[in-house]
Design goal:
By secondary structure, the protein is of the alpha/beta class. It contains six helices and seven strands. The protein has helices spanning about 5-15, 30-40, 55-65, 85, 115-125, 145-155; strands spanning about 20-25, 45-50, 75, 90-95, 125-135, 160-165, 175-185. Strands 3-2-1-4-5-7-6 form a seven-stranded mixed β-sheet, sandwiched between helices. Strand 2 (about 45-50), helix 3 and strand 3 form a beta-alpha-beta unit. It is globular, with a radius of gyration of 15 Å. The two termini are about 30 Å apart. The model has no long low-confidence stretch (mean pLDDT about 95). The protein binds S-adenosyl-L-homocysteine (SAH). S-adenosyl-L-homocysteine (SAH) binds near residues 52, 102 and 110.
Length: about 180
């Protein structure tokens, strides 16, 4: 197994995704998570992918075309905080990959305003579903977003939500934080 954050998270998420599921990629970026979700939901499933950057949507579109998966995805160039405007069904898995687009404009990073987006994702999550957050800190992104998100997650009702925060405990230089929020039955 590859222990990069994306692969590590996919490894956990793939246990849960079933053929026909609805999933959301809240930060499409270069399309890696969107492609993963499209593969897992199968021909009868659907994936909604959001990104505010035209370049990210273009890269994701290209990637899905190459993989012959375009029919399973709806690509939306808008902020993930508005996901409830576009998604009217409950979702099984919702992925947020915070930070900036690799190879893109570092100024367009996700911000502490992401809390609104996480709240929307909680509203859309199916029972037994998972929200995965990959949180970066340090570098261009700073620590503010990480702190804001972790403080918010602490306040979630433990009867309804299980929040698991993983860490690359013995790695230096602000390793990313894989977080899983489970909606309990
Ligand atoms: N740092 C990650 C990639 C993050 S990509 C990695 O190393 O793989 C994060 C994406 O979120 C970027 O493409 C950016 O355009 C997008 N983004 C920023 N704010 C957003 C918002 N409000 N809604 C949707 N996407 C957003």
């Amino acid at each position: 197994m590859n222990f990069q954050i994306t692969e590590y998270c996919h490894h956990i998420l793939e246990e849960y995704i079933e053929e026909g599921d609805i999933c959301i990629d809240a930060t499409a970026g270069n399309g890696g998570d969107t492609e993963f979700l499209c593969q897992k939901v199968g021909e009868t499933g659907n994936v909604y992918a959001f990104d505010v950057q035209e370049m990210a949507i273009a890269h994701t579109r290209e990637r899905l075309e190459k993989a012959n998966l375009s029919a399973r995805a709806k690509l939306i160039q808008d902020g993930h905080e508005k996901m409830q405007t576009y998604v009217k069904e409950e979702a099984k898995v919702i992925i947020f990959n915070f930070g900036y687009l690799p190879g893109g404009d570092h100024k367009i990073a996700t911000r502490a305003a992401s809390l609104t987006a996480i709240e929307s994702a909680l509203n859309l999550l199916k029972k037994g579903g998972i929200i995965n957050l990959c949180i970066y800190s340090g570098g261009d992104t700073g620590y503010e977003e990480k702190e804001a998100i972790l403080n918010y997650l602490k306040t979630l009702d433990s009867k309804k939500w299980l929040v698991i925060v993983n860490s690359y405990f013995n790695r230096k230089n602000d390793p990313p934080l894989p977080v899983f929020i489970y909606r309990l039955k």
